[in-house]
Write a structure and sequence with these properties.
Aspartate Aminotransferase, domain 2, 2 domains, alpha/beta, seven-stranded mixed beta sheet, single chain
Length: 431
């Protein structure tokens, strides 16, 4: 492991308390339903409910109760325009114009929609370039889109390999951008290791070669700033239930650069219509000229509702402030682990440097599954990832430096007393 801080005073609980006292975001912890003496470090899988999100859900429920079908155009948040309103609030988090964003679908359904639109294999350009560390659902969608065009996935899906099993080299990704590649699909942040990829470097390289490029933002939105419009990314897609705290199964989002707006989406559905004409119910669709065109069916209003309160919080705090604290939290946690847990065979699978480190750290240990179970027994909520990874995500809006300090002490106790051996080293049904 790498020693990042050598001053022993910085390993005392009093130092964590000092950091908390200077934290400008500490007041926001009270906005969330954080349980006493529980250290929730799984916000990169499912964020905690905020009180503002709860309130917007109740408000939407009340509009259903009060207005019935008229809730589509009446009430505090008219449903007919709700996805677009949320897109306006999401746009600053991804560095986009409001018309380039829409909240709709899920990560996988949105990727299907975007590939149906942008993957047009012809002549020599027939392949999709992705990476072997990407979240499997993205690869499933890519493979099915290739197969739907009558092509063989083994011939038309190119996967960039990882040298260490945790991270990717951007130069090797660029080397894979051959003249037969039509589309590149990459994560902005790798879901296991938390590595941040250089989106501008990769986008510039793809465009220099005439290749369309899109990014999965699931593990970056709400954790790091983006500049999708300025960078020129062709499209992006994401979920909203991780760092953005949109709730289990929250509606996802997508981005289409304005240079592509007006393009007919590959998959059409009536909610992608121009709003003023949607209820003309004509047999020929008039798609929206915004990213709203990429919607299919009726929005899931009750699943969108928590996002209004959550996005209100994010816009109030600002993504730059969130990123600053996130880096301090993960850096502090790594320092403590390096100091306290030497000799217990942990290694960092995440990047050490701030520019390439996302919103969580990734500890590698051969006993990872049983260590995670032992942590949960001691009120620390981690996240296990096959085959031997422990993801720990202290979240800027509701995690404190003292939470991080306590977590590391608990982890030390588990390892020193070997209480993890009381558990099987196998994942649960949901890991």
């Amino acid at each position: 492991m790498v020693v990042l801080i050598v001053n022993v005073n910085q390993f005392a609980r009093s130092f964590a308390e000092h950091l908390d006292s200077k934290d400008p975001l500490k007041k926001y912890k009270a906005e969330f339903y954080v349980k006493d003496n529980v250290y929730y470090l799984d916000g990169n899988s499912l964020g905690i409910l905020s009180k503002r999100s709860e309130q917007t859900v109740l408000t939407i429920l009340n509009s259903w109760k009060e207005y019935g079908i008229d809730g589509w155009t009446k009430g505090e948040y008219p449903w007919f325009y709700f996805s677009e309103k949320l897109a306006e609030k999401s746009a600053p988090l991804v560095g986009a114009k409001p018309e380039e964003v829409i909240l709709t679908g899920s990560t996988t359904s949105n990727l299907h929609q975007l590939l149906a639109t942008f993957y047009k294999p012809q002549n020599i350009r027939t392949k999709i370039l992705a990476d072997e560390l990407n979240f499997p659902s993205d690869l499933y969608a890519i493979k099915s889109q290739i197969a739907l065009r009558g092509l063989k996935t083994e011939d038309h899906l190119v996967l960039v390999k990882s040298k260490d099993g945790h991270t990717l080299l951007e130069d090797e990704i660029i080397e894979g951008m051959k003249e037969d590649v039509a589309v590149v699909i990459l994560p902005s942040v790798l879901y296991r290791s938390g590595q941040v990829l250089d989106m501008k470097k990769l986008t510039d390289a793809a465009h220099e070669r005439g290749i369309i490029i899109g990014f999965d933002l699931c593990h970056s939105i709400g954790a790091i700033p983006h500049a999708l419009h300025e960078t020129g990314v062709d499209f992006a897609f994401w979920c909203n239930y991780k760092h953005l705290n949109g709730g289990p199964g929250a509606v996802g989002g997508l981005f289409v650069h304005e240079k592509h707006l007006g393009k007919i989406p590959g998959l059409l559905g009536w909610f992608g219509s121009e709003k003023s004409k949607q209820f003309n119910l004509e047999t020929e669709m008039t798609p929206s000229t915004t990213a709203g065109a990429y919607q299919l069916g009726t929005p899931h209003i009750l699943s969108l509702a928590p996002l209004f309160g959550s996005l209100e919080l994010f816009n109030e705090v600002g993504i730059d402030a969130i990123r600053e604290k996130s880096l301090k939290l993960t850096g502090y946690m790594m320092n403590l682990i390096d100091h306290k847990l030497r000799g217990f065979d942990f290694t960092f699978g995440n990047p050490i440097g701030e520019s390439s480190r996302g919103g969580h750290i990734y500890l590698v240990h051969e006993e990872a599954a049983r260590i995670c179970k032992a942590l949960k027994k001691e009120r620390v909520i981690p996240d296990f990832r096959m085959p031997n990874g422990i993801r720990l995500a202290p979240v800027a809006l509701y995690s404190s430096f003292t939470d991080v300090w306590e977590t590391v002490q608990i982890l030390y106790s588990i390892m020193e007393k070997q209480t993890y051996k009381l558990f099987d080293n196998q994942r649960d049904v949901i890991a």
